[in-house]
């Protein structure tokens, strides 16, 4: 299943800077591992914000939920999720038509 996920991170300014850097380091490592597994594709990083628009390719909505909840920065995120449908293009290859 494909999901379009828009994540905006709002870290309170009064949080300990070392704590925040540790969270960011863990977040980056986890996102890179999920990208290697083919589950998370960063589409855009939104300019001027700590936010991104991504595509998740997972087995179920439950798996996406578990992934999002495991993100170290999740407690500071505003998340918008849209389910996507995979479908064939309206312009088909000749070989596909047979």
Automatic annotation (TrEMBL):
Residues 1-89 form the Muconolactone isomerase domain. Keywords: Aromatic hydrocarbons catabolism, Isomerase. GO terms for molecular function: muconolactone delta-isomerase activity. Belongs to the muconolactone Delta-isomerase family. Homodecamer. It holds the Pfam family MIase. Pathway: Aromatic compound metabolism; beta-ketoadipate pathway; 5-oxo-4,5-dihydro-2-furylacetate from catechol: step 3/3. It catalyses: (S)-muconolactone = (4,5-dihydro-5-oxofuran-2-yl)-acetate. GO terms for biological process: beta-ketoadipate pathway. Its EC number is 5.3.3.4. This is Muconolactone Delta-isomerase. The keyword Isomerase applies. It comes from Pontibacter ramchanderi. The keyword Secreted does not apply. InterPro entries: Dimeric_a/b-barrel, MLI_dom, Muconolactone_d_Isoase.
């Amino acid at each position: 299943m494909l999901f379009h996920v828009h994540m905006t991170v709002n870290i309170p300014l009064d949080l300990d800077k070392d704590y925040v850097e540790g969270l960011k380091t863990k977040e980056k490592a986890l996102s890179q591992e999920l990208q290697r597994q083919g589950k998370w594709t960063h589409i855009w990083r939104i300019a001027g914000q700590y936010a991104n628009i991504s595509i998740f390719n997972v087995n179920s909505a439950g798996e996406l939920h578990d992934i999002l909840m495991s993100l170290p920065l999740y407690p500071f995120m505003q998340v918008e999720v849209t389910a996507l449908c995979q479908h064939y293009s309206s312009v088909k290859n000749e070989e596909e038509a047979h």
